[in-house]
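[09:14] KT: can someone run the structure on this one? pasting the chain below
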Amino acid sequence: MILYMTKLISFQFAVKAMLILLVAVMIFHLLILAGVIPFQIVWGGRLENEEEMYRFETVSILVNLFILSVVLIRGGYWKVHVHEMIMRGTLWVLAFLFLMNTVGNIFSVNFWEMVIFTPLTFLSMILCIRMALDKTK
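[09:31] RB: done, structure tokens below
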């Protein structure tokens, strides 16, 4: 199955798709911070006030910036030397975290979070696995 994934999804497609997803997600979180999108539709619908929203959304943006930097390095867009094993290990950890996020989204009390973000986090997991499988980058 893993070999099939490497033939079905190219490494460059995985990198570019993940970059697009990350930029879109960061714009989404910035719109939440700006109050354009209500914060009740994220974090499982469990945020109780704006103070919590600012803390959680700030963490989310920082985490997404970290993931973005990992993908930029892995894709060769940002020329920073990181050992191959560290990079691949980080991508496997991210894939696991996206899996856990997918499970969390399935149990969200917000219908839209469940319907929209469950497939996005699942796709992010698949793309991270694909990038982790490539040994030549």
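[09:33] KT: thanks! DSSP finds five helices and no strands in the chain.
[09:34] RB: yep, looked fine to me
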